[in-house]
Predict the structure.
Amino acid sequence: LTYYEKEGKPFTTGGALSAVARAVADGTPASDGSGLGALRVIDESDLLSDAEEQALDAKLAAYEAAHGIRVLVGTVKNTHGQVLGKVANGVVDRIADGGTNGTIVLLLSMKERDWYISTDNKMRTRITDGKGVDYLAGEFLPDLKEGKYAAAFTTFAATTDEMLTYYEKEGRPYTGMGALSAVARAVASGGS
C-alpha cells in the first residue's frame, strides 16, 4: 500500500528500477512516464528506510537547484545480464535534459556487488573521469563497504556538492589536490 500511495500504481516484483532497465534497453525517454522522470532516489534493493530515502532526496533536490544539475542515486537488485556501466550510462542519457549544467548517476547493483558512477559531457567537465571520479568514490566507498548505505549515498551527494562548488568558484574541476573536504579541513586545523 505504501508503494501504491507513493508511486500511484500497484507494486510488482519488477520494482521501480526495472523501469530504468527497460528504458535503457529499449531507448524509452524519461519523459514518457517510464519511472525515471524527476526521481532522484530509486531504491529497488530496499537498502534505505523511508526516512533515509526522503532525507537523501531532499539533499539531492537542494544540490540540483543550487548547481543546475540532475542527480540520481539508485540501487538495483539485479542488472539482468546487462553491464552496470551500460545501465548507468543509459540512465544518464534518459535524464540528462534535466540538468542544465550536467547529470550524474550513482548505481549500486546488489547481486553483482558492484557500483558505477556515470556522468554526461557537461558534468564531466566539472567532475572529471579519472581523478575526479576517483576522489568522489574514495569519499563514499568506506561507508559503502561497511554496508552503511544511507551514509555512503549522503557522502556521495555532499562530495558532489563540494566538487561542484569548487568548480564554480575556481573555474576548474577538483581532482583531489588543493581544497579539502570539511572533515579534512577540521582535522588539518585541529578542530573537531
